[in-house]
Amino acid sequence: MSVTTGSASDSTQSTAKTVGIGAVAGLGAALLGYLATYVATASTIENSTASQVLEALGSNISTWKVVGWVFMNAHGVTTNFPGLFGTTSSTNLIEGAEAFSAALYAVPAVALLAAGVVAAVACGASSAKSGAIAGGSTVLGYLPVALAGLALFAITIGDAVARPDPVTSVLLAGIVYPAVLGTVGGVAASAIR
């Protein structure tokens, strides 16, 4: 009877380890994805006419926050801007600005596929199921970054706020992207082993 309890305990510890490693890999993917986006776009943002106009109007616009918008846009998340008379408009800066390359869409995809691979390899995943669990658990590290981005990437413009769309930030960037791409990376890594 103690053998069964020991096996269940070992299984629980193994699952906790797998989930923990996946969460760390997801967090790393989010941070590296943001960093890659920053390197690719910061100088373009700093030198843009829109940035200079907003600064002249007294808006506190930080380059790292606009990079956050672009990073979230790479997940298909739009940025909401305040409009006249309480209206809002939304845009994807990658699609709307010719200054940004469509290759930015690959940044989160590559980062999350790699995170799934890293998680599966670090956990020693030898089956598609264990690889999927390791890769899918990248959500646990990626989702908090998407949630934090709602507050961190917000820019006050007058009495309103411009920021990534909350619903798609959580659903697309926080859950769907890491769940799907992390799982694919984890299954691929376990299949190669």
Automatic annotation (TrEMBL):
Keyword Membrane in annotation: yes
Annotated organism of origin: Haloferax elongans ATCC BAA-1513
Protein keywords: Membrane, Transmembrane, Transmembrane helix
Organism ancestry: Archaea, Methanobacteriati, Methanobacteriota, Stenosarchaea group, Halobacteria
Pfam family, one: DUF7978
Name of protein: Transport system permease
Top-level taxon of the source organism: Archaea
Membrane-spanning residues: 20-45, 105-127, 139-158, 170-192
Chain ranges of the DUF7978 domain: 1-191
